[in-house]
Amino acid sequence: MDSSEPRRAELIARLTDLGAQSASLTALFQQRAAASYGLGVSDMKALDLLVRNGPQTAGQLGAALNLTSGAVTGIADRLIARGFAGRENDPADRRRVLISADYAALQSGPNVYQSIGEAFQRLHESLTTEQLAFLARYQEESIALTQQAVDDLAAQDQRAQHR
Predict the structure, then answer these.
(1) For 27-52, what is each residue's pLDDT tens digit?
(2) Closest residue by Cα to residue 26 from 152, 127, 106, 142
């Protein structure tokens, strides 16, 4: 693969631009989706973690979202006030409190993610297995690169706070 090949350079530039567009539109969609539930983006990200990973301590949510314990307490309070989550004692350690998604409440209300989920499902169904495998690998590597960038920025913030 010759990096000086014009078509390759055009495709790389297009992927860079498309990635930026996708990130911006995803952020805008997340803001609007969160607002439709009376929540903020961090609240929705926490709820997503609770749905995907199960009950979490405030410390676990804070670490995953790179937020302080005070910020996580505010998020938990908002999710609970809106009926999307609850607090429960950890059955393994009654001293610990877990925050968990309220699946019944989530399923009983409107789902602003349904139409976009269905649209992506149709897109995915239009692709071959090989195309899906390539896209899955690309997404996994993109996520790893982005996670590293987030971790690097968090480390910079930590160093700046200790100066």
Answers:
(1) 999 999 999 999 999 999 999 999 99
(2) 142
Residue 66 gets the label, from left (phi > 0), alpha (psi -120 to 50) or beta, of: left
* Amino acid at position 130, single letter: E
DSSP H or E segment with residue 99: strand 93-101
Strand partners, 86: 100
C-beta separation of 50 from 85 below 8 A:
yes
Task: Write out pLDDT tens, residues 102-161.
Answer: 999 999 988 999 999 999 999 999 999 999 999 999 999 999 999 999 889 988 988 888
Quickly list DSSP for 38-98: T--HHHHHHHHHHHHH--B-HHHHHHHHT--HHHHHHHHHHHHHTTSEEEEEETTEEEEEE
Q: Residue 71: exposed, middle, or buried by beta-carbon count in 10 A (0-12, 13-18, 19+)?
A: middle
3-state helix, strand, coil in the chain (%, to 5): 70, 10, 20
Q: Average pLDDT of 87-102? A: 91
CA 6 – CA 109 distance, rounded (Å): 51
Q: Is the full-model pTM beyond 0.85?
A: no
